[in-house]
Amino acid sequence: MVRTVSRAARLRGEVRVPGERDRAIQALWMAAVSEGASRIGGVPPGAAGTVDVLRRLGVGVEGEDRGFRVDGRGLAGLEPADDVLDLEGSEEAVLPALAILARQPFPGRVRIPEAVRDRADQLLGLLAPAGVTATAETDGVLRLEAGSAPGGGGHEAADLPASVKLGLLTAGLFAEGPTVVREPASCRDRVEAPWKERGVPVESSRAGDPPVRSLTLSPGSVPEALDVDVPGDLAGALPVVVAALAVRRAEVAVRRVMVRPGNRLFVDLVRQIGGELEIAGADDGSVDLLIKGSGRLKATRVADRRARELLEHVALLAVLATQTEGEFIIRDIESLRRGEYDFVDHLVGQLRRVEAKVGEYAEGVVIEGGRPLKGERIDGRGHAGLVQAFAVAGLVAHGEMEIDDAECVDASFPGFFDLLDGLQAPRARENA
User: Fold this and answer.
1) Which residue from 237, 292, 311, 420 has the highest number of Cβ atoms inside 10 Å of its Cβ?
2) Of 263, 374, 284, 271, nearest to 7 (Cα)?
């Protein structure tokens, strides 16, 4: 599918972007074993596999605007599935789900993502004394069985990862005795928060020198239904941020996005080069991003760790570089040359098509910003990041930007092009 983007005179408005995948998956699993109906808003397309798994376990999950209604089955209401259940997401999403399945009264077979298997083994090892057994089969599949009377238990180690602690507390919901998890008193993980929000009492006490906090979940706790509006994924917000920076006189707010120390590098870079971006915090830990387009951005150099952490955003970073003044250097991205095709070489070719001045070398690119761009036919190669980047470029280019394979964006950000169109001022849409 080809999408056409035209030059925008102005961008103005408030938008929401798809929610964080892992947080949505976690909320879906917790809703499944709660009592009553929960509504989970902001669920991204990447959580579709979890919705399918829950339905196979007998959970009623119905699609609604921006999310799903989940009719919780309670702790004892899940049904056996006929085949292997593929768990998806990072360890923060997978381990609570694994704990729930490991405590069911029926055996189950699950496939764990390779990146999470070490943490999954750690959790299952800690649950083994309480009656949980996990038998490895082929192709990364585990057969899970719980003892007839799963006990609770105290976990003395105070340096467990947050995902493992959450998994232990989740398993404790099904135990006949109290579950105690220890952590340093200075810890800010707040792993008990998702269950406390659902009415599960988790007591906290301090003791020892150095001080240690003990989290105690007592047996008989029944999670209550809770409506959750999953905050937006910052990665989905970045194309909107760059669009607002590039279009002069733009005023755009991206509401309720999660910005953490581990994902804010692009945001910090934007502020470093002079972008007018304000971060306004909210009570739930999310933030609003308030962006104004001033047209006064200065070039910089992105290399080493910064470059490696921004690899998935290199196309967007390159388009941002065309809107700065001076030479913008992006290096140490040679890993993008390996794979199905040389992504750097393809990106450079598309940038030159729109008349950006780009120099290419083995380790990266150098872009001379401040030159006008020209609308052209772009080969998106089925790469969502590339498609979104050149859609943003189309907002400042002279002439129409036609982008092939634009439908690939729907897998991560359905409605992306409609969102960009909705931000254009009425006069800009009429002219387009």
Assistant:
1) 237
2) 374
The model scores a pTM over 0.70: yes
Is the Cβ–Cβ distance between 131 and 150 less than 8 Å?
Answer: yes
pLDDT in tens, 53-83: 999 999 999 998 879 999 999 999 999 999 9
- Give the mean pLDDT of the chain: 93
Prior bond to 210 cis, omega within 30? Answer: yes
Q: Which of 97, 120, 86, 77 is nearest to 26 (CA)?
A: 97
Is residue 349 packed enough to be buried (19+ CB in 10 Å), middle (13-18) or exposed (0-12)? Answer: middle
CA–CA distance, 323 with 431 (Å, rounded to integer): 23
C-alpha span between 272 and 191 (Å, rounded): 33
Of 333, 377, 336, 335, the C-alpha closest to 354 is 377
What angle, rounded to 10 degrees, do the helices at 234-246 and 384-394 form? 20
Mean pLDDT over residues 214-242, rounded?
Answer: 94
Residue among 155, 229, 170 at smallest CA distance from 200 = 170
Q: Please give the backbone phi and psi of residue 110, each rounded to the nearest 5 degrees, phi first.
A: -130, 150
Beta strands 133-136 and 141-145, pairing class: antiparallel
Token digits of residue 222: 């029944």
Residue 410 neighbours by CB distance under 10 Å: 14
Contacts of 300 (CB under 8 A, 6+ apart): 269, 272, 273, 324, 328, 329
Distance, in Å, from the CA atom of 19 to the CA atom of 249, rounded to the nearest integer, reads 28
Name the pLDDT band for 221 (thresholds 50, 70, 90): confident
Give residues with Cβ within 8 angstroms of 271, minimum separation 6.
Answer: 277
What's the pLDDT tens digit per position in 104-160? 999 999 999 999 999 999 999 999 988 899 999 987 899 999 876 566 677 888 889
Residue 262 identity (one-letter amino acid): G
Of 114, 75, 110, 81, nearest in space to 222 by CA: 75
Structural Rg of the chain based on CA atoms? 24
Span 200-223, average pLDDT: 89
* Phi/psi-derived region of residue 351, left when phi > 0, alpha when psi is between -120 and 50, beta in every other case: alpha
CA distance 192 to 215: 8
Residue 218 and residue 110: Cα distance in Å, rounded?
A: 28
